[in-house]
Amino acid sequence: MLDGEPCNILENEFVKPGKGQAFSRVKIRKLISGKVIEKTFKSGDSVEGADVMDTDLAYLYTDGEFWHFMNNETFEQIAADETAVGENVKWLVENDVCTITLWNGAPIAVQPANFVELEITETDPGLKGDTAGTGGKPATLSSGAVVRVPLFVQTGEVVRVDTRSGEYVSRAQK
Amino acid sequence: MQTDNWRPSASIEILKQRALILQKIRHFFAVRDVLEVDTPTLSHGTVTDEHLHSFSTQFTHPFATHACTLYLQTSPEFAMKRLLSAGSGAIYQICKSFRNEETGRFHNPEFTMLEWYRPDFDHVQLMTEIDELMQMVLGCEIAQRVTYQDIFKQHLSCDPLTATLADLKTLAKQYGYGELAASENNKDTLLMLLFSQHVEPQIGQDRPCFVMDFPASQAALAKISATNSLVAERFELYFRGIELANGFHELTDGPEQTRRFQQDNAKRQSNGLDPMPIDENFIAALNFGLPNCAGVALGIDRLLMLALSCSKIEQVIAFENSRA
Prior knowledge:
heterodimer; A: 174 residues; mainly beta; five-stranded antiparallel β-sheet; 2% helix; flat; B: alpha+beta; eight-stranded mixed β-sheet; three-stranded antiparallel β-sheet; 11 strands; globular
């Protein structure tokens, strides 16, 4: 918690003169305002922990303004706004379970599954007979995300992507 | 993938370069007739410095009823000075040192230290020798030399030796550390914060930079200057934003060293840390007589980062800690 907002640590650089006091230079995202700030703490300083809860919900649909998720056991639905969804919008696949962070019951962050499967909507035909491990080519997925894929993967195929790195993993198992 | 953790964090090519540079460093000392030594990693006493955290372990002697605590050394300094007192002459060592609570882009809890001592040198003469080593390993130009006071003034418009606690708090607040500064009552902590964040990144960009004459309150194991009691005969070497080495015109006064260790322990206790056992063998060696000498500790891994253009320490060590 910082200035009354729950925050997420994006980066933490450890700074320590050989004979001196250690500091942490931390890059923090404030989860409500979405602001990214830098702050320096003395090693060992503490801040109030945020009372947030993670819950696993299935993604249903978007109405353009809100993204709707449902608890598969209670069928309770929750709507997350653009700030909460953020850049992860490109990894949302219908019926996939995502981790939603709730603060005081309201969604403030949406974390997609580590791996998602999406169809390629557009990519260059590429060369036949090429194997994995070469440079690859960009491919646009049905969610709008763009990832680098090996040359042998074609439009219309479904691929498995690591959402943490945004990297192609394999063709989807049919 | 978790399964990749068995792999080295450095490439084999970098490890070959590392071996080659270490060979060159040993040659550098061999031709200068500096003796290579090997001192213990485990010790009964340890550093009292409030900012250094030793690892400890339990030694069970086969005939003893209780295990005793031994500490992994944070630098081979005490043992090497005992050799100097015993008449070793000039010595150097390349060894692992261990510091708890340190990990990051420039830190690994165990790291390789090059430490050497030159009887009859003062810190200024030793800087010249370090400079020669740097030029050999890095192919860089002759290092710049500045005083802590001048360089601090130049970048922060404040005299670090005469500034009051209130002055430093105001300065820290101006630079965006308001919350930290408000609750901080240690001048040295504020100096370290401002120096590491606003001076270090500015200096030694084109060539290495020695910063000399640290404030007396950060003397550690250095002599206080005979001509200016506000500063210690201590220097640090920086290059491209990396703190590479720390050296002293060594304190040879046993009772004064004991007083500093006791002060350290008092500070530790007021900050809620356990006092550390003073290395009595080291104190005894000082009391017997440590020859007038200068010494320096240089981080080999960081030197390799510079030599091999690596941005993270893990790229120059075979297995960084999380893979160890």
